[in-house]
Amino acid sequence: MLIARLIADNAQLETRLLTQPGWLIAADAEFELSQIDEDLHELEWSSQNDPALLPRMLDEVLKPDAALISDQGFDLPDLFVSDMDSTMIGQECIDELADYAGIKSKIAAITERAMQGELDFEDALRERVKLLAGLNEGAIALCLAERIRPTPGAATLVATLLDQDCRTVLVTGGFHHFADAVAEQLGFDRVVGNVLEVEGGKLTGKLAGPITDAETKARVLREEVAKLGEGAVSLATGDGANDIPMIEAASYGFAYRAKPKARAAANGRVDGADLTSILTLLGIPESDWVAV
């Protein structure tokens, strides 16, 4: 049996269930919805039902602010691996940095297509970095100070998971120049990312070292799980196409306000703004959250 935990207003759920779409009626699906806290509910989806219809029911009928589907219960994670841009922070660092070079719209358009899965990630990354050639390295510090801010709930999510003895890893297709500072601010144990090449205090338009891409993200998650041992429970969050392998590899893979392809690959989703929804769905009471 599949179980979906969802965060939604109880009255709204009752209203939405009054008018069921034709496809759900035709499926003759058996399910039971129960309230387990003020805005937290569990939906038991019969093993006789088509499992593919459960995400559709969430999206088209119940429309929760956040949800997590599981067939193995809801255990606290031993590992948390997260994307950075538009997940742990509210911005795309390369887009904001490009503004200091006067080319934000040009680079942002490429970023959006890459995150939608319309472009090869590495090619799109190299193309954007090349456009930054000649930019003063000092623009990075300015960008960090003036533009980069954690996503609502990100700091509490990380701090609470750490308090629950969960290892935390920030893995990004972005850059160490940003990720190291973000990881220190939020408390991540490890950082994996790309390195902007700098010479004479200016960006060269090239990357130094291997590329952190979609496969790297999934590999990091698998390696960290292996270190923790058999039975380790993993949690991952991301928003773009390059997060899909990592999301799929995790026990709980969350799409945070995500692009459609990433959302379709996830068994968890947060459509509201606050990442602490994940703590609620995992069953960690607010009294145990570590406020930051």
Care to describe what's here?
By secondary structure, this protein is α/β, with parallel strands linked by helices. It has a domain at 1-64: Alpha-Beta Plaits (2-Layer Sandwich). It has helices at residues 10-18, 22-27, 53-62, 93-99, 104-115, 121-131, 138-146, 154-163, 176-186, 214-228, 244-249, 260-265, 277-281; strands spanning 2-7, 31-35, 40-45, 66-70, 79-82, 167-175, 190-199, 202-208, 234-238, 252-256, 268-270. It has an eleven-stranded mixed sheet with strand order 2-3-1-4-11-10-9-5-6-7-8, with helices on both faces. Strand 6 (167-175), helix 9 (176-186) and strand 7 form a beta-alpha-beta unit. The mean pLDDT is 97.
Can you tag this structure with a few keywords?
11 strands, alpha/beta, 292 residues, Alpha-Beta Plaits, 11-stranded mixed β-sheet, single chain
Furnish the topology, listing elements before pairings.
Layout: E1 2-7, H1 10-18, H2 22-27, E2 31-35, E3 40-45, H3 53-62, E4 66-70, E5 79-82, H4 93-99, H5 104-115, H6 121-131, H7 138-146, H8 154-163, E6 167-175, H9 176-186, E7 190-199, E8 202-208, H10 214-228, E9 234-238, H11 244-249, E10 252-256, H12 260-265, E11 268-270, H13 277-281
Parallel strand pairs: 5-6, 5-9, 6-7, 9-10, 10-11
Antiparallel strand pairs: 1-3, 1-4, 2-3, 4-11, 7-8
Helix pairs in contact: 4-5, 5-6
